[in-house]
Specification:
This protein has 144 residues and is mostly helical. Helices cover 56% and strands 10% of the residues. A two-stranded antiparallel ribbon has the order 1-2. The termini are far apart.
């Protein structure tokens, strides 16, 4: 049974309670970097999340106000998930995770995006704003 009480009022704990499980962060990654927005697209990720876990994490991210669900533009029977303004506040954390993972994992896919990772280091504030604006407009961190 999942714990529902607050462990502490620590800001780090608050963040971990909201997005501290690997699956939630991978869903946010998929939206931010790869432009995935639908249940089916999340299921197709290489980490192979189960349908029950995916359903649980999407509901949790919605409840936390990090993602919002809206009808897919071309097919109102399907739903898509997008960042809320609160969720966009996590962009710097996800960028930092990409930088850290690339630095410490020699097999990281981040090595294929050297210029982007370099911008995380050198132009953090500007890149953060750019990525947030791209996501607001329906793009991805890597879109032009």
């Amino acid at each position: 049974m999942k714990r529902t009480d607050v462990k502490s009022n620590c800001p780090v704990n608050f963040t971990l309670e909201a997005v501290g499980d690997p699956w939630s962060l991978l869903i946010l990654r998929d939206i931010m970097y790869w432009g995935k927005h639908t249940f089916k697209e999340f299921l197709a990720s290489e980490e192979r999340i189960t349908t029950s876990v995916l359903t649980d994490r999407l509901l949790s991210l919605e409840k936390q106000g990090i993602l919002t669900k809206r009808p897919y533009p071309d097919d109102k029977r399907r739903d898509m998930y997008v960042f809320t303004e609160k969720g966009l506040g996590l962009v710097p954390i996800i960028l930092d995770m990409m930088e850290w993972g690339t630095k410490h994992d020699p097999k990281s896919m981040g090595h294929r995006r050297k210029a982007f990772v370099s911008r995380i280091r050198k132009e953090r504030g500007q890149l953060n704003s750019e990525v947030q604006n791209k996501l607001r407009q329906g793009g991805t961190a890597f879109s032009e």
